[in-house]
Every structure is written in structure tokens, then in C-alpha cells.
Amino acid sequence: MILPIYLYGQPVLRKVAEDITPDYPQLKELIENMFETMYNAEGIGLAAPQIGLAIRLVVIDLDALSEDYPEYKDFRRVYINAEVLETSDEKDSMDEGCLSLPGIHEKVTRPTRIHVRYLDENFVEHDEWVEGFLARAMQHEFDHLEGKVFSDHLSPLRRQMNKNKLGNLAKGKVSCAYKTKRVLR
Ligand code: NI
Asked: Burial of 157 by CB count in 10 Å (0-12 exposed, 13-18 middle, 19+ buried)?
């Protein structure tokens, strides 16, 4: 089932998300719905707050990038209760967008490597260092679990340049190809 994606301006995107346990109601179905919602919107990652749930659940599928990054062929993952434990001093910049901020694309500077701990869909714990595009995707998605969105990382100048777009988004004034939940003011 395709779920509506909550847009910038929705309070749930500013909440710190809570851990979940294996008995979370209909978790399997929820995960499938998140993947379906993400594919429908042509995204590569989706965090539960973006479908209105303040829980620490993220899905990522990087297969769409596998032409440029062969290591991501069939790379489809679920991250539960994820946290970033350490980050590298080395950083780089890359263009980012977000299904909750349609129409905005900006360069974001982030650490190139991160040490993460999370549970997979079987609640098996993983503790690993991650790099490359995956490290970026994870940081973007895990930010959503802390109530942050990528525009929070922009310089005051770039934020000023996007002020109208962000303002319109927060008022629900945006056209979008997928189903959304927006604040109408
Ligand atoms: Ni996002």
C-alpha cells in the first residue's frame, strides 16, 4: 500500500523518533508499505517519520545507483533503532534531495565514513563502519530519526536562497507527483 509522504512543515518530521521492539504491530507489512511508498516516489531512502510515524525505522534501496556503483546491485536494507556512534573527520559534499522536501536540491557536507549500530529486519544487531554513498544515504535517513532534515545543514546563505521554497513547502504550496500529507495554511 502506498502511504502519503509527510512534507516539510509537518510536526512529526521534527520529533526525535523512538526505538521499536519486534512486537511492533504489523511491522512486516509496514516495512513493505514503506518500500512501496519509496519506489512509487522514486526515492532511494525513506524514514518512518516521513510517513507520519515517530519510530526508528528506515528503508534504503540503492539498486537504482548500481550502474554507477556496482556494489549496490540489489542493495535493499531495513534499519531499525539505528544510531550513529562515530563519524570520520574527513567530509565531502554532494547534492541531496528529500521526498519530504520536493523541489529542493542542495549540496550537503557530511562525514565520509560513519560507525553505525542498528538492527536489521530480523532484529539482528549490526555494528559497522560504512563509507561511500551508503554512508551519505544513512546519515540523511538517520537525521530524520533525530527530527532533522537536510536543509538544516545548509549555510545561512543557501538557506536564504531557499527561503521562499521552504516557506511555500511549509504552507503546503507545492506540486508533487506522489501522494503527500501537507500542512494547509
Ligand atoms: Ni529525506
From this structure: exposed
Which of 7, 12, 57 lies closest to 147 in space, CA to CA?
A: 12
Give 47 Cα–ligand 1 centroid separation in angstroms: 7
Show the domain range for 159: 5-181
Rounded distance between C-alpha atoms, residue 15 and residue 144, angstroms: 9
In CATH, what number is assigned to the domain containing residue 64?
A: 3.90.45.10
Split the chain (185 residues) into runs of 10 and give each run's mean pLDDT. Answer: 96 98 98 98 98 98 96 98 98 98 97 98 98 97 98 95 94 93 77
- In the reported structure, the alpha carbon of residue 89 is separated from the centroid of ligand 1 by a whole-number distance in angstroms of 23
Choose among 32, 51, 48, 162: nearest CA to 97: 162
Q: What is the pTM of this model?
A: 0.97
How many structural domains does the chain have?
Answer: 1
- CA 37 – CA 4 distance, rounded (Å): 8
Dist. CA 10–CA 170, nearest whole Å: 8
| DSSP H or E run through 15 | none
Spacing, Cα 37 to ligand 1 middle (Å):
13
Catalytic residue list: 141
Is residue 5 within 8 Å of residue 180, measured between CB atoms?
yes
CB 82 within 8 A of CB 138: yes
